[in-house]
Structure formats: C-alpha cells, structure tokens
Design brief:
The protein is α/β, with parallel strands linked by helices. It has 20 helices and seven strands. It folds into three domains: about 10-340, no CATH class; about 345-385, no CATH class; about 385-485, STAS domain (Transcription Regulator spoIIAA), CATH 3.30.750.24.
Amino acid sequence: MLSTIKQQWFSNIRGDILAGIVVALALIPEAISFSIIAGVDPMVGLYASFCIAVIISFIGGRPAMISAATGAMALLMIPLVKGHGLQYLLAATILTGIIQLLFGVFKIAKLMKFIPRAVMIGFVNALAILIFMAQIPHFFGISTLTYVFVAVTLIIVYVLPRFFKAIPAPLIAIIVLTAAAIWGKWDLGTVGDLGTITQSLPTFLLPNVPFNFETLKIIFPYSISLAIVGLVESLLTSSIVDDMTSTDSNKNKEARGQGIANIITGFFGGMAGCAMIGQSVINVKSGGRGRLSTLVAGLFLMFLIIVLGGLVVQIPMPVLAGIMIMVSIGTFDWSSFSYLRKAPLSDAIVMLATVIVVVVTDNLAIGVITGIILSAIFFAAKISKVGVTSHFTGNKVTYKISGQLFFASVESFVEAFDFNIKNKDIVIDFSDAHIWDDSGVGAVDKVVIRYRTNSNHVTVIGLNASSEKIINKLGVYHDSNAQLKSH
C-alpha cells in the first residue's frame, strides 16, 4: 500500500509539478471554449476543470491522466442549457456522476475488450484532427504576427528539448512569448478575448430545480448520454496513456472515479467532464507520470485564475494554439498510413469510418460505436460462410458441415441441401461445425423436418457439447423420428 502511494505520488515530484503547470496553462482556453460551446459562463467550465482534476487525482484509476471539462461533453449539453438553463445542467451533471459510478460498480469497463484495434487507431487519429481543427480559429487568417508566434512556439517545443530538458519546453514557450507579447504590446488574440474570468473559488450549492419526477424526465436522457460519452472517452484515453507510459491502469476504478468527480463537480457549479486525451498527452510529453501531475494541474489552474488572473488573460492564443498543434501532431498515429496498406480491407474501412464519423459529428462516442458496429458486421460476414459437402454411399447420404451456424449463415446452410432425395438414410455430420443460436437450431430443424417429409431417416452426429445443449433446449426435431448423436 505504502509502496503504491510512493510510486504513484512521489516517484517523479519535479517532473509531475512542471508538467502539471503546463497542463493548467493549456486547460484555461480549453475550459473557456467548452463553456462557450455549452452556452454557459466561462467559470462553469473552469470550476469543472479544477474540481474534476483535483478529485480524479486521488480516486482515478489512471495516474498522469488529465480529466476536466471537454468538448465532446459540452456538445451534448447545448439543448439542455438552451431549453432549461444552468441549474438543470448542474442537476444533470450530478446524475451523470451517479450513473458513471454505477457503471464502475458493475464493472462496465470490461466492455473495453470489445473495442477493436482499428477503432482505437481511428479514435486517436480523429481526436488529433479535432484538436488541430479547434486551433484554426485562433491563428488562421488573423495576422502575419499570429503566424509568427505559432511558428516560434513550434520551434521552441520541438527544438529546445534537444538541448535543455530541465523545464518543459511548452512552459518556456508560454512564459517567454507571453512576456514578449506584453513587452512589445503586440496586437494578438489573448485568453481574455474568450470570456470573462472571475477571480473567485467555487462554492457548494444545491441545483435550484424541483426534486421531482418531472425534473428526472428532463435530465435523464442527457445524463445517460453524458455518462456513456464520458466513460468511452475516459477509458479509451486511459488505454492510450497506458501505451504511452508502458504501465497498466484500473479501468473500473477510473469509471467510479469519473462518477464521483462529476457528482461533486455538479454541487460546486461545474459542468460534467471526463478524461482529455490532448491534455493527457501534454502531461506525459512534459514529463508527468504520477497522480501529483493531475493534482498540480487542478490546483495551479485555480491559482492562475485567482492570483494571476490579470496575467493569464494576456497569454497569447497563438502560443497555446501552437502547443495544441504539437499535441495533435504527437497524438496522430502516423503509422496509420502503412496500416491502411497492410491491414485487411475490413479493418482499414473500420478505421477510416471511425475517423470520418468522429470528425463529421464532432462526437467521439458516435464514431467509436459506428466503428464497433462495422467491425461486428464484417466479423459476422467473415465467419458466416458454412461449408456443406455431400457423399453418397448406396442408400446412405452423408452431409459434412463445416463452419459456424448462426443467424447470418443459416440461409446458405439450408440452400446447400438437396431436398428432392427420398427414402434414404441421411446423416448430417457437425464434427467440424458449431451451432451458436436459435436461428442455427431452427435451420437444423428445418432441414431435418423437410427430409423427414420425404420418408427419409435422419441422423445428426458430431455435435460438440454446447451445440448439443442448445439443440436439446430449443430444437424440436429430435423429439420424433430423427436421431441425435454427439461426439
């Protein structure tokens, strides 16, 4: 226990503190932007980012992962805020947390194993594209000076680490270029242009909504959507950080932690949030490895707002945009291009479909679900080929079945038989086949019954244990003239 605490909290103190500071600076424009998307005051997103980061640092299942207010969640909140206002959003945030907590308790994270690698690659690449696209309004078509600041930021974050690694390059870029912009009084877009920052701490409050079934009816559809999207993004981000750091994480603990964080956040005036892959990548690339980096990110975010609010609003947006461009470049899986050439066509289609749907809808959950459904369809098509070969010996006809018999393969299975045969001994051999579902059982029934109507004697042999069990449970043919024999 003590060794785990030491490892997760104090094994990388200097790296975690510096990385947390970088993340906190990058969180401010993100949190403000997401608040604006959702249609609420900028402080709602900032309070959420502070609360979630601090809470998740203690109870999350993935050290060094950053959770805060996110764009994917903000998009889902728009209709609720427009139709019912902030107070209902806070109530929905609390309910979102409760649902996520229940998901964690019931170990919903084990469903992660059903997400194929092609979907994971598509998710990462789509997120990299979305991160880049989100920066375009902050530097494209504004001024030559804006382009210069973006370029200088990128030069600093890529070149400086080759010579100096004591302080994260993004932090140096923010400090140096902000100082230069203030000293030179250059006309650049700043954090302050995004919205008003109030220099105050969040306070505990109960959402000002009626506590009745009518309210539940309003917020539940939003809460269930937020809970699912938040967990999908958090668990996928957790897996990505696992790969980046070559360490493992507790996905069910992360689900419970996200739930508790959102419950508390709702009581402190914040909107629902989840893990952020962009900020998590910044954290890891800046040297963050432990829970301390997430805690510092949350605490320093509040310190920046309350104590250094006057300076924070002067940070040039091109600098933060440059850092996020670096994140998008680092997040994108550049081996995807060779993957598209080498992978099976179905996997390549799944990966591209995931990317396209996420980018078009701006919703990570929809993209991931689309990818999973496509993968399932391709998989079903791949294994739905059933082989049926016939062998005639005197009065006996033996049909040898190979493959998987289930809803997608029953049609080709039935069509493979010649039902004009009369007065024969029919043997159907399932030694190389498996019956999976009621549709498969129904197909076997259909074949046996059609042969019986032509005065044939039918014997089914070679069933494995599970196939025999489902036949005995759901089938009808073996109760009459046909014989059933297993291995």
